[in-house]
Predict the structure.
Amino acid sequence: MSARLNYNLGFEKYEKTLLLEAGTPAAPAVKEGYGEARDRFRKAVVADPKLKEGWNMLGFTSRKLGEYEESLSAYEAALKLQPEYPEAIEYRAELFLLTGRLDDAKSAFGSSRRPRRPMPACC
């Protein structure tokens, strides 16, 4: 099966799982859904190691499943392909926060060369 097809099938499962998680976050089906999506993303990046979106989503689903080392490795792979990939920067920083690595989270956002949006005017 092609990388893109596996990615698309994984993303479809991911989206359904997000909706399920919003309604019943502790449901066993949520873990199962993220597991199925992660399996598809794994297959996608094996078929096409340059698929940054696949690496990013592998990182996201692994993080949701508590597999933090795999998650970090996947985000790093996505960022190696595109250092300014916004979603991977954000999700990696969320992983750092989740695992108590506040300094790493700060530097992850600080190292981004993304244009900063101005703060909205107050009052």
About this structure: Confidence is low (pLDDT under 50) at residues 113-120. The domain at 3-110 is CATH 1.25.40.10 (Serine Threonine Protein Phosphatase 5, Tetratricopeptide repeat). The radius of gyration is 15 Å. Residues 3-23 form the longest helix (21 residues).
